[in-house]
Amino acid sequence: MESVLEDEMTSKIIGAAIEVHRALGPGLLESAYELCLYHELNLQKFKVEKQKLMPIVYKDVFLESGYRADLIVEERVIVEIKSVQSLNRVHEAQLYSYLKLSGCSTGLLINFNTYLLRDGIRRLKL
Predict the structure, then answer these.
(1) Is 104 helix (H, G, I), strand (E, B) or coil?
(2) Beta strands 106-111 and 121-125: pairing type?
(3) 3-class DSSP state of 61
(4) 72 and 95 in contact (C-beta within 8 Å)?
(5) C-alpha span between 26 and 10 (Å, rounded)
(6) Tell me: the pLDDT tens digits for 51-95?
(7) N or C: which end of the chain has fewer CB within 10 A?
(8) Do the bridges between strand 106-111 and strand 77-82 make them parallel or antiparallel, or are there none, so unpaired?
(9) CATH of domain 2-125
């Protein structure tokens, strides 16, 4: 049941990202897409946290780090935003690390620097 809810939520998040991409197109900085997607998700009544600190717990020691997730939606889905020529494995590894650190099991990696946004979206699960 939980997976069905996350699947529906990720579909709505992707729809919001498409709305932002239609309005802005490719070629802007990640920060612009992040702010606009944050705004769009809030308009759709989602609870969204931006630039959430991802602390590391190592051998029961809490270590503050500089790692931040771009967006966390409903405390369940991490959205990592990119504006790069192409996504690669290091971007996926970053999102997998954020999923592990956060306790979330679903993440969306969205590259806004594409002609068709669907070509820049990857859905990852732990």
Answers:
(1) coil
(2) antiparallel
(3) strand
(4) no
(5) 21
(6) 998 888 888 888 877 789 999 999 999 999 999 999 999 999 999
(7) N
(8) parallel
(9) 3.40.960
Tokens of 67: 């790692």
b/e per residue 78-92 (b: at least 16 CB within 10 A): bbbbbbeeebeeebe
Q: DSSP characters for 4-54? A: HHHHHHHHHHHHHHHHHHHHH-SSS-HHHHHHHHHHHHHHTT--EEEEEE-
Q: What is the pLDDT of residue 59?
A: 87
- Asked if residue 113 has pLDDT above 90, the reply is yes
Contact 86, 57 (CB under 8 A): no
pLDDT tens-digit profile of 8-47?
Answer: 999 999 999 999 999 999 999 999 999 999 999 999 999 9
φ and ψ of 63, to 5 deg: -115, 120
Domain ranges of the chain: 2-125
